[in-house]
Each structure stands twice: as C-alpha cells, then as structure tokens.
Amino acid sequence: MLFEHDDDSPVRILTEDESWFLLEDTRYGRLVTYAAGELDVVPINVKAVKRRLLIRTTPGTKLIEVVIGGKVAFEADAILSGEAWSVVVKGSARVLEHSGEIEAAEAAKIESWLPTHKDVYVEITPEHVEGRHFELGPEPEEL
Fold first, then answer.
1. CA atoms within 13 Å, Cβ hemisphere of 82
2. Beta strand pairing call for 120-135 and 52-57
3. Per residue in 59-74, is it b (16+ CB within 10 Å) or e — as a string?
4. What spatial distance separates the first Cα and last Cα of the chain, rounded to whole Å?
5. Residue 129 CA to chain centroid, in angstroms?
C-alpha cells in the first residue's frame, strides 16, 4: 500500500508533498483547458520538475487554448492492486519561449507516447494541488 489510512476510511486526502511524490513518476495525464467558453480535455505527456509540470506538444488546438486561456487543470491517476490514487493540479500555463527555459525543458526528457515531433514546451505553475488515495474493495452491505 502506498499510503496508510489512519481512520479506516477508504479515502485518504494526500498532503501536497505526497501528491508531488506521485506526480514525480507520472508520465501521462489529462490537461483541461478553457477558451472561448469551451472546456477541452486532452491526454498529454508530462514531467514534474521542481514542483512545476512540463508538457511537450505540437502546435494546434491544445496549444492555442493554453495561450488564450492561460488557466489550466491537470489530472493524473493510477489504479493498482487494491489501491488507486488521483492528483489534480490547477494553475496557469505558459509556452516557454526563452532559449534557457527550452534547453532546461529538453533536458527533462519528456517521453512521448506518439511517434510525432513535438518541439513546443509548456510549463504549468501550480496554484492548487490536491490528491486522494483510495483503498479499493467491494461496496459494503447496507445496515
């Protein structure tokens, strides 16, 4: 079990440090953007570096929505044997434009799950991080 639950509850609220511990090994998740009155959710490659999230992407709708809206949410989760977790990060996103920032992002070696060339880097600066850990099991019988 990744985390112990103190009160026999199947749900444990994670601390910010525990949430970042999980994000440090996360390579994929979902990015939520908001632009022109529309929400959009897309799967992305990501890497946590110094309590920020880095995304490697291509020009397109996702990138336009980041530039227009600026505010984003990111969610990652995992289902393991007998347990699961979810972490949500809300914050602001910006396209990295300065050569030093881009070089640092390239050094992070963000893995891609598609065989496409991705040369645009986006940084998410968190404003709120929340995580939950779940002990999985059957629904209890009614009393």
1. 4
2. antiparallel
3. eeebbebbeebeebbb
4. 28
5. 10
